[in-house]
């Protein structure tokens, strides 16, 4: 039987592996909307994409899944933005830009000549997004009815370009990156004290009685 105490770093690694396993092939299937976690989730599947609840109060955004990149980004509501058709109104930042001196900014490629942390990302099909990093609450719901909303960093894209191949872009509000880099939501959750405490409390209860 598994003991009542498990090192937090073991739980963190297990947590990342569990989420990656669930989302590794989710874009290849059409599934009904349901929770995809035994203990809690910030992401829900919807027709092969995911729903991410962002902000206070939380607002839903539909995201395409990319396991090969780290950064998660939403289309941004700022003057002059070049956004694509999407199911929801673009995300509106509220004085929550990430400063270029923030440690997470160093993990984003490219130079940042201003005080804000800009990003530029291009995918294999030559779609791209340009924008700025922001920090906002991403809601995590647990099966016992409680929830937390840790502040996590993601991109606010103001210039999206589609592939020149003629393939239509996905009808979503952005992309969720499930890579292992420092800027990924999974990595941020692993090192977020609020998420770690909640996961550790759940694991102690679950491992002490795995049949509940």
Structural summary, described in words:
With 212 residues, this protein is α+β, with helices and mostly antiparallel strands. It has one domain (8-208): Acid Proteases (Cathepsin D, subunit A, domain 1, Beta Barrel). The chain has helices at residues 8-23, 185-190, 193-208, and strands at 40-41, 43-46, 49-54, 59-66, 73-75, 118-122, 128-137, 140-142, 147-148, 151-161, 174-177. The chain has an 8-stranded mixed beta sheet with strand order 2-3-4-11-5-10-7-6. The chain has a 3-stranded antiparallel beta sheet with strand order 1-8-9, with no helix packed on it. It is globular and about 45 Å long. Mean pLDDT is 73; it is low at 1-17 and 20-43.
Based on the model shown, name its key terms:
alpha+beta; Peptidase_aspartic_dom_sf; disordered N terminus; 8-stranded mixed sheet; single chain; Cathepsin D, subunit A, domain 1; Aspartic_peptidase_A1; 212 residues; aspartic-type endopeptidase activity
**Termini gap:** 14 Å
The total number of structural domains is 1
CA gyration radius, whole angstroms: 18 Å
Mean of the pLDDT scores?
73
Q: Do you know the CATH architecture?
A: Beta Barrel
What percentage of the residues does DSSP assign to strands (E)?
25-35%
Structural class: alpha+beta
User: SSE string, helix = H, strand = E?
Assistant: HEEEEEEEEEEEHH
The side-by-side strand order for the widest beta sheet comes to 2-3-4-11-5-10-7-6
**Tally of alpha and pi helices:** 3
Low-confidence stretches: 1-17, 20-43
